[in-house]
Design goal:
Layout (H helix, E strand, L loop, with lengths): L1 E2 L12 H10 L4 E4 L3 E4 L2 H8 L5 E2 L16 H11 L9 H9 L5 H22 L6 E3 H6 L1 H11 L6 H15 L5 H27 L5 H7 L1 E2 L2 E2 L2 H32 L1 H9 L4 H11 L5 E6 L3 E3 L2 E3 L4 E5 H4 L34 H18 L4 E2 L5 E3 L6 E4 L1 E3 L1
Parallel strand pairs: 1-2, 3-11
Antiparallel strand pairs: 2-3, 4-8, 5-15, 6-7, 8-11, 9-10, 12-15, 13-14
Helix pairs in contact: 3-9, 3-11, 5-7, 5-15, 7-11, 8-9, 8-11, 9-11, 11-13, 11-15, 13-15
């Protein structure tokens, strides 16, 4: 079905799932939207798109509207090059090479070492909140934003004094992805993202001369078949880690707090047995993935779900809709941390499966139960939350809670 004038960007984020459900059940669940492309809402179709990297390219940033910039600005050029060359927007063979090198820094051994870092950061954040027990605070501001940026900064070996700077820079970097950020706001985001790239270059050069056993050190030292990451590849990888390792986890920590707060029976399971948090994180990400959509461009003429696409056609795989498809999940709207199997697509699938998924899971497993343990009477002022509507990755701006 072709939908003229349909604007997903204008729909309030909390209401989006109702729209997805209607679109999923309308006809064959495939809808062409003016100026956007063709949207797929059903699990099997979304899975197929994610599993066909040869037919559907991920290289949609460079050459797209979000890559528009002032050619006269060196920082804006650097920002666009940095974003356009992150793993998310690369195809084989460049993607294969880069992922093969970067994955060494995300081994099970590395994740185990980071657990102590996450625990230490969370303990410090909660300790700062204890004097405010009984007060209303913005959970987003004091927990969900603080923990991820401190964790990713610490494991990259960034000086603690630079945390506020990196928070501002990563927000700008994320804004570069957002098509709704236009005009002067986009120019400012590109300038700041370019500044982040410049800072990262200097950080890499310094670390090459002064090696350390942190994540950046692992990335610099990573080698496969005699090849290492170039400076440009390192910059894109670090920038993606700062943005993905903070922005997406902010969303997960907010969604997780909301789901567990609203389902006391599931919270009780977690508080009795912390091992249940592994299933809880997956269920949180199933119901509210940080990225609701991912775009692909047809590399050749191809058939999918009974529809024909020509080379260059843009398609969108709706992970958020797929994750609530009753054809795949029993009682899909129910929050059930014991759900098994739970083959959700919240971290993607195939060659572009989120390389930082284990770091996200680690933070979710530690942060959420510790917050509820420290503040057992915590209540969320749901009606006072504010949202940032975004087609791909909507998020809370504020999340007031009484602790």
């Amino acid at each position: 079905m072709t939908l003229a004038g349909f604007d997903l960007q204008s729909i309030d984020a909390p209401k989006m799932h109702g729209v997805f459900a209607a679109m999923r059940e309308d006809g064959d669940g495939v809808h062409a939207v003016d100026s956007l492309g063709t949207l797929f809402f059903r699990y099997d179709d979304v899975m197929q798109i994610l599993s066909m990297p040869d037919e559907f390219s991920s290289a949609i940033f460079l050459g797209g509207p979000q890559a528009a910039h002032d050619e006269g600005s060196a920082r804006q050029r650097l920002a666009v090059d940095t974003v356009g060359n992150i793993l998310l927007f690369l195809d084989a063979p460049a993607h294969t090479r880069l992922r093969s090198l970067v994955r060494h820094a995300f081994s099970a051994k590395a994740i185990l070492l980071w657990e102590q870092t996450v625990e230490s950061v969370v303990d410090e954040v909660i300790a700062d909140l204890i004097p405010h027990r009984g007060e209303i605070v913005d959970y987003n501001e004091v927990v969900a934003h603080v923990v991820p940026i401190r964790v990713i900064s610490e494991i990259l070996g960034i000086d603690p004094g630079d945390y506020p700077y990196f928070k501002r820079m990563t927000t700008a970097f994320v804004n570069v992805f957002d098509a709704a950020v236009t005009g002067q706001a986009r120019a400012e985001a590109l300038e700041l993202a370019g500044e982040l790239s410049e800072f990262t270059v200097s950080l890499i050069e310094h670390r090459r001369s002064n090696p350390r056993a942190d994540l950046l050190g692992l990335l610099i030292a990573a080698e496969e078949n005699g090849e290492k990451l170039s400076t440009a590849e390192l910059v894109s990888s670090v920038a993606a880690l700062l943005a993905g390792g903070s922005h997406t986890i902010v969303g997960m920590l907010g969604n997780g707090l909301q789901f567990l707060h609203d389902h006391p029976d599931q919270l009780e399971l977690v508080m009795r047995d912390r091992q249940m948090m592994a299933g809880a994180v997956d269920e949180i990400v199933r119901l509210e993935p940080s990225g609701r959509w991912t775009g692909r461009v047809a590399t050749r003429d191809v058939q999918l779900a009974g529809h024909s696409f020509q080379q260059g056609d843009l398609v969108w795989a709706g992970m958020a809709s797929a994750n609530r498809d009753p054809r795949q999940f029993d009682d899909p709207e129910r929050f059930d941390i014991t759900r098994h199997p739970n083959r959700h697509l919240g971290f993607g699938r195939g060659v572009h499966y989120c390389i930082g998924a284990q770091l996200a899971r680690l933070q979710g497993r530690i942060v959420l139960p510790r917050v509820f343990e420290a503040f057992p009477t915590l209540s969320i002022l749901t009606e006072q939350q504010t949202w940032r509507n975004d087609f791909i990755s909507p998020s809370r701006i504020t999340m007031p809670v009484r602790i």
